[in-house]
Write a structure and sequence with these properties.
By secondary structure, the protein is α/β, with parallel strands linked by helices. The protein has two domains: about 5-120, translation initiation factor eif-2b, domain 1 (Four Helix Bundle (Hemerythrin (Met), subunit A), Up-down Bundle); about 130-335, 3-Layer(aba) Sandwich (Rossmann fold). It is about 40% helix and about 20% strand. The chain is built from eleven helices and 18 strands. The protein has helices at about 30-40, 45-65, 75-85, 90-100, 110-140, 165-175, 190-205, 215-220, 245-255, 285-290, 335; strands spanning about 5-10, 10-15, 25-30, 65, 70, 145-150, 180-185, 205-210, 225-230, 235, 240-245, 260-265, 270, 290, 295, 310, 320, 325. The strands form five sheets. Strands 8-7-6-9-12-17-18 form a seven-stranded mixed beta sheet, with helices on both faces. Strand 6 (about 145-150), helix 6 and strand 7 (about 180-185) form a beta-alpha-beta unit. Helix 2 (about 45-65) packs antiparallel against helix 3. The longest helix has about 35 residues, at about 110-140. The protein is globular and about 65 Å long. About 50% of the residues are buried. Mean pLDDT is about 95; it is low at about 330-338.
């Protein structure tokens, strides 16, 4: 399986990201409830990936609620809302659900065709965005073995294939332009330690892991030429929501005068929101922080502030790169595109 998500005879097949790195296995999801559960427990994660999974889940719903060629659209729309609400911060999920609902009047075959089109487009768009981002990094940093820093997981596991920020790193590595990739472990669920490390090893790219709080220290020490991250939502003013810990890297990159580049498909852009202040930030269970793998690491009754994402202000972002090139409202970034 070269793609992280696929459709097989009414079943959604997806790489189980909770099992990695110790086991590579596929989930076979047959119902909307199973898809929602996989998204909420992060067995399927990454903004583009959950968007595709959500679209395919609506296709499953449309099939399940069609009898004698008549589709119960109210039932499908109700399930679609549950899918869209599974993770509120990543706009790709609600975007994909809305897109397939737009053809619901054509019946379940039309919904499935649209969902499969989103799946195909995701790989194409991410490859294009990764290529544009790699070109920008070379313009900003020069052609040399680059020392790159990334956060969370933005590779083929977080998308249908190839990846966004990690996809750009793969492009640079294939061109012989990467010396080393540093990446945060990504507390509390360790997407960096479990998934990014697995993908970098798979691709044969030199890498070292940092505890999340060491990223700013690496930037201050001059160990990084460019920071590359993904996004779960980009607002009209260029504010970026991404995995918790991104904001501190952006602050440190700004202080160190290191480019901070966001790579994401256009489905991540949400121009309906004026700024990051309007983004709903998902907060997850305290147990993810107070324990891990079933083992308690904090005293019983310890509370936790556990936001899954933070917001990086636009002024700290060098560029947001999509499949179409640069997106950013700041006039200074127009110079980068020339």
């Amino acid at each position: 399986m070269t793609r992280s998500i696929a459709w097989q005879d009414g079943v959604i097949e997806a790489v189980d990201q909770c099992a990695l790195p110790h086991e590579f296995r596929l989930l076979r999801l047959r119902t909307v409830d199973e898809v929602i559960d996989a998204i909420q427990r992060l067995a399927i994660r990454g903004a583009p990936a959950i968007g595709v999974a959500g679209a395919l889940a609506v296709a499953q719903s449309a099939r399940a609620h069609t009898r004698d060629a008549v589709c119960d659209e109210l039932a499908v729309r109700a399930e679609a809302q549950r899918i869209a609400d599974a993770r509120p911060t990543a706009v790709n999920l609600s975007w994909a659900v809305r897109r397939v609902l737009g053809v619901l009047g054509g019946g379940p075959d039309a919904v499935l065709a649209e969902a499969l089109q989103i799946l195909v487009e995701d790989e194409e768009r991410n490859r294009s965005a990764a290529g544009h981002a790699a070109d920008l990094v070379l313009r900003l940093c020069g052609r040399k073995p680059l020392r790159l820093l990334t956060h969370c997981n933005t590779g083929r596991l977080a998308t249908v294939a190839w990846g966004t920020a990690l996809g750009a790193i793969r492009v640079l590595a294939e061109a012989g332009q990467v010396d080393e990739v540093l990446f945060g472990e990504t507390r509390p669920l360790l997407q960096g330690a479990r998934l990014t490390a697995w993908e970098l090893a798979e691709a044969g790219i030199p890498h070292r892991m940092l505890v999340d709080s060491a990223g700013p220290a690496a930037l201050a020490a001059g160990m990084v030429d460019c920071v590359l991250v993904g996004a779960d939502r980009v607002c009209a003013n260029g504010d970026v929501a991404n995995k918790i810990g991104t904001y501190s890297l952006a602050l440190a990159a700004s202080r160190a005068r290191v480019p901070f580049v966001v790579v994401a498909p256009e489905s991540t852009l949400d121009t309906s929101l004026a700024s990051g202040a309007d983004i709903v930030i998902e907060e997850r269970a305290a147990s993810e922080v107070t324990g891990y793998g079933g083992l308690a690491v904090a005293p019983a009754g310890t509370g936790a502030f556990n936001p899954a994402f933070d917001v990086t202000p636009a002024e700290l972002v060098t560029a947001v790169v999509t499949e179409s090139g640069l997106f950013h409202p700041q006039e200074t970034l127009g110079e980068l595109a020339s």
